[in-house]
Amino acid sequence: MPSANRIFTDAELEEFQKDCMDLALEAIDRGDLEKAKYWCRKQTETKDLIHDLYLHWIPALLSHIYEKWGEEAAVIACRDTAKNFSIPFARKKAEVTKEGGLRPWIEIIIDLWRQHTMYPGFKIEEDDEKFILTMNPCGSGGRLINMGAYDGALGYKKLKKAGPHTWGEKEVPIYCSHCPWVHEIFPIQDQGQGGQLWVHASPFPSKPGDPCVYHIYKDPKDIPAKYYERIGLEKEI
After folding, report:
1. Are 74 and 62 in contact (CB under 8 A)?
2. Long-range CB contact pairs, 71-75, < 8 A, 24+
3. 185 DSSP 8-state letter
4. pLDDT 10s digits, 49-94
5. What is the pTM (predicted TM-score) of this model?
6. Distances (CA, A) of 135 to 20, 23, 49, 120, 145
7. Which residues have a Cβ under 8 Å from the Cβ of 11 and sit 6 or more positions away?
8. pLDDT 10s digits, 189-230
């Protein structure tokens, strides 16, 4: 019997040591479908709490660098830190597509995005040439824009100067500025042309409510030249 000073029972403390999906699976094994549904709903309700703390931390930190040391310093900070997680993804794409074509790569992306607040509002389509992935909104940059995070009290910065790191655009939200580096420039540097994770067809939401649209070409040779030109390259493949 717990002492009078205890707040939780031993069973509750043990439950705290398991994540929502493990608890849902245990409930299914016991035949308790209502409890399993409870844990699935709890997972959905709480999965974005930590995600969004870090989501705001990144543009806040880059905006701080921008304010203290200028736009160029913020661009360099974004570039140099983004490379650390871009290259492993580029190499993973090269590995899985070499072995199994685009199917396993698409499946990996979808698994990741299911945890990235893309739902509802995510749509994937396929034609003979490419996959079209529409995020409405994107689970990070698009959500920040929809929140009004670049206006009002938060006032995160936008990059005023156009260049390869902004797809040649001006007034790019500072969080979205990692996308040219991570999804296109660094993968090309590491894997060669055609190594992009995807190309940004939109390329970023210019106002609240705009979607992000990615294209993944089945044959890298079909990637239009404009997607190279806007990041400062000429199409060679």
Report:
1. yes
2. 71/157, 71/159, 71/160, 71/161, 74/157, 74/159, 74/174, 75/159, 75/165, 75/177
3. I
4. 889 999 999 999 999 999 999 999 999 999 999 999 899 999 999 9
5. 0.89
6. 26, 30, 20, 9, 13
7. none
8. 999 999 999 999 988 998 999 999 999 999 999 999 999 999
